[in-house]
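yo

u said u wanted the structure for the complex thing, so here. seqs first:
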Amino acid sequence: MVKTMNKIKIPELSLVVLIGVSGSGKSTFAKRVFKETEIISSDKCRAMVSDDENNQAATVDAFELLHYISSKRLKNGHLTVIDATNVQTEARKPLVQLARDYHCLPVAIVLDVPEKICQARNDERVDRNFGKHVLRQQRSQLKRSIRNLKREGFRHVHVLSSVEEIDAIQKIQREKLYNDKKEVSGPFDIIGDIHGCIDEAIELLQKLGYNVDEIAYDNESFGYKVANPEGRKALFLGDLVDRGPNSPAVLKLVMSMVKSGIAYCVPGNHDMKLQKYLSGKNVQIKHGLEQTVEQLSQESEDFKNTVKEFLYGLVSHYVFDKGKLVIAHAGLKEEMQGRGSGAVRSFCMYGETTGETDEFGLPVRHNWAADYRGRAKVVYGHTPVPEAQWLNKTIDIDTGCVFGGKLTALRYPEEELVSVPAKMMYAEPARPYKLEADSSLSHQHELDDLLDIDDVIGKRIVATSLQNNITIREENSIAALEVMSRFAMNPKWLIYLPPTMSPSETSDIDEYLEHPKEAFKYFKSQGIDKVICEEKHMGSRAILVVCKDENAVKERFGIENEGIGACFTRTGRNFFNDSALENAFLNRVQLALTHSGFWTKFNTDWVCLDTELMPWSAKAQSLLKDQYASVGASASAALANVIGNLEITQKRGIDGVDQLLESYMAKSEMIGDYTKAYGNYCWPVNGLDDYKLAPFHILATDGETHMNKNHEWHMETIKSICEADPKLMVATPYQLIDLDDDSQIESAIAWWTELTEKGGEGMVVKPLDFVAHGKKGLVQPAIKCRGKEYLRIIYGPEYTLQENLKVLKNRGLGRKRSLALREFALGLEALDRFVKKEPLRKVHECVFGVLALESEAVDPRL
Amino acid sequence: MLLNISTTHNPATDLSFLLHKHPDKLQSVELATGKAHIFYSEATTDNCSVNLLLDINPIELVKNNRNNSSDFALAHYVNDRPYVASSFMSVAISKAFSTALNGKCSKRPELLDQVMDFEVKISVLPAPKGGELLIRRLFEPLGYEVILQRHQLDANFPEWGDSKYYTLNLKGACKLKELLSHLYVLIPVLDTNKHYWVNQSEVEKLLAKGEGWLGNHPEKEQITKRYLRGIGGLTRNALDRLIENDLEEQPIEVEEESEVVKKKESLHHQRLKLALQELKNSGAKRVVDLGCGEGKLLKSLLKEKQFEEILGVDVSYKTLEKAMEKLHYNEMSPKQKERIKLIQGSLTYRDKRLDGYDAAAIIEVIEHLDLNRLRSFERVVFEFSKPKVVVLTTPNREYNELFESMATDSFRHTDHRFEWTRKEFSNWAGQVANSHGYDVEIKPVGEEDEKVGAPSQMAIFKLSEL
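structre next:
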């Protein structure tokens, strides 16, 4: 008896095309061995578009749908099974194309079941009543198909020729692609194009801590014994050969390391050409192959054969470290990573070319890295560059060793570049690669000069480390796009926008709407024991980016000729309209930072500060005049006349006028308090000395954000900066409060009362830690308690009337607080991405998100 | 918040009969968000002086309006409504003095036609910049002597100057019904803020009050227009919350409406005509209007068969909605709809949707960008979208000196970030053309002045290989 197979092996990501006549049991088979969601059935698609599985008139629409669903699945990297007869070449052709489009392998599984059985099965089904001729025709098409499947492009063909064979299959075994090394996490030393430069290669390996010994040649070691440091692995990016002085030696070194398991290697275009040459194919012996051929002529046939086999066995690219790292000779687009097709292989070898040639006769390359949006870091070579530079998470580390440049390695995950200079110029480059060094900005900064609208519009989901995914609704991005485009500064400055801040719950004390007691109660209820109370300054929120010098602006922010920093509002607008004043202001802050030793202490040449800039009247002049003072002016003038006429009337002794007069006198008094309230935050500004700057967070400096430090640290560090320029800068008074200590709470309340009675805005209560998690997750980063008089400019002059307070005390904070947390998470994410040197679009996405969320409808008085 | 009407007609107390309000009592009527009190500060045969005092609860006001519209920006919680004479005053007049306003007096019908000498004092009237002139234009043609007292913004900050509030004194002789109708209609006309009408019928009622005098009033158009402006204007969208207050559109000066605005309008018309001509000459079939605004140019483009595909782009979604309305987009035939598309886009973000057009119109757009954002704009248009032809206009700053009402060093629009001289413009255009492979030609737009040139200027860029 013939032993039947009980499993079929297919690649993990394939497009499985079932082939069999009606009634051959495809659906039953598929259901048994595949996941339900993996199966796309033409009958089901017919039903979806026409309510009838057998409606032949719906065939065209049904197949459109089938192809569409399949393409979405393949794009997302999911195995897909096509359950249709697929007996005709025309039916299979688009499926093979689909697999190619998504760089996955088409697999055919043929169910070859005798016609009689199929007929019997169909007869049992009331909905299948087509004639015998249909089956006969299908079957003859099937028979003709089987031998052509390989030629049509199916990489794996499995024919199951009887019901028994079909039933015997217990399992579809899914095999990983060769390029899948996700389980290998490094650390790695990734080495660029060597091109036969053996001395530099050995020197670089030694510099990286490898021990390279030359030993007697054998078929395992090829004459090299290499020991790796602390479990590190070397990754070679290909182009081991050609042009350089000793390609055979480089081959031996790399083959030895790969064989001993301490290295991986991907092929370069030169390696593949050599492989073709060694296989006896007709190739042009130029572009450095002539040297390799010459050098190999000294080697044994056996060695050449081994080289041929080695090169043949190289996998186009590798995906390492849970998908976080991809290496390929010429780089690889996101949609090709971890996939297998001729197109993938060709991309890995040559990159993306446009088909044109440049003035040096070389193919024009499309800069795929500029469009790269993938999650994985891509390390590649192929194109010599003067310096290796990150661009959108990709880096080209071919620094032209063979052309007299250097041989470079990237240490991963450290992302440290290590190189050794070429001992000499071994070959003349066809295109002078150092030309590219012209621009003064880095590639990333140059690319970041212009953001793409696709990165901001529509509904967006931003992943943040603090709050997972934050959704930005389309209507909010619409609003943010307008504001960002019309009013915001150069987006390269906008590395942060501040979150909104919620007030405390309303107070149960009669005459107060807000009171610190409620803020303390909130934090206590969240399980926070220690809070900081900071005086709330009434000015305008201002975010400052200040650099040590213009060079730092260029290096770190990629901005030229826009001064040494920026000062912007909570919506990303330039704070100052007068650029001379702006420069003078930023220079003063910079000087204070310098005098306080900030740059050295933080080992940085830039800083981002969260501040309040006073007076309020400096920025909000028109708001004050058009709104606040106007209300005061109209009320004072009108009430004076009203009270005058009521007083005259009072003399006539009319009933009720006394009370009326009294109530209008009260109104007049409240208007007086109100004008006094806003007046506290106004003073004339004639020059820089009239401004006061109160920083309260040191958000980030080079390489780090400071969210891991508590607020006491922020306050104290800021105090030392303020001391360097006490005329301009104010250290914010604060108190640390232990919420378990009633006397401390009392003292904080007393302090608040004193502050607000003097006309202060109030105070902000924050958990001592910058980022605090409580019983219910992330805790509000700050709660404001505003003073009784200050609130007149928020709730109107007459809000203190008992009847009004009663109404106002009934307010909900849920939306405001949820918004505050989301904006907080986005703001910190923006900073985090910026210090990690992510592309600007990644930073901008978060900042744009904050702005978009700010357009959500929330009671603006909160 | 206070209306005071006095008469020295003899006997002055006839006024109380006409008003149907007892001179020795304090009376109150209910309004939607408060009350109005009526009392006489004097009631003798020589002088009778009645007061109508508003008592609006600002908190109620906000609450009520939140119920029938979406919401308000912060500024609306702290507002002048309770303290000024606005549409509330009209409502109060109609409630407190309805019989008099409607010309009824059952007890002494003969008084209805009695012309009396009146003195009226209104505390206070809001009137925007140039409002004094408007107040005079409204009341003087009706035969009143107008005395205005303007109030300072804040005595503690004299440098802030005057407010937009006036105490208005009127003197004149007429029938009471006429006086009340005048006040009823004209008080809200002066108010550029939102009106608080309950519904549309209120408007009709109000216009009925203009019977007999509004038709002959020299400012009747302005009165009607300003009157209706507030209707339906209560909703504010998400965007308004973001736009910081200092850039909110300033109410247009009264004087400006007649001169500069008209001039500007005809200039804009010329500019569009010229742009259209250039686009036609270019032979373009697919055109994009970058910064299409409310779609004036799109409308003329649609009329030309030559343009097979038209794309309108604007950064303001609200403006696009208006453009769709004005173009009657939703009622267009499918064939016409195929020709035109409107999208929200920005000129400082690279946008693939703008690729591959034959021509782009960029009419009065660049001056709305900050100078240091201009480079991004150049790259978006000339480096990436790369239309074969670009027709671009911007004001000629030199010409501003011919706009008499313009202050020196100011711009034609509050949102303009810069305005260029002819030389600055041609330098910029030359440099852009040069670095992106275009040829450029500069043309004047509008009638040229010998010294300062034309009011606007146009650059026509053509891709060099054409």
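Chain A touches chain B through 84 residues (CB under 8 Å). The longest helix of chain A spans residues 621-650.
cya
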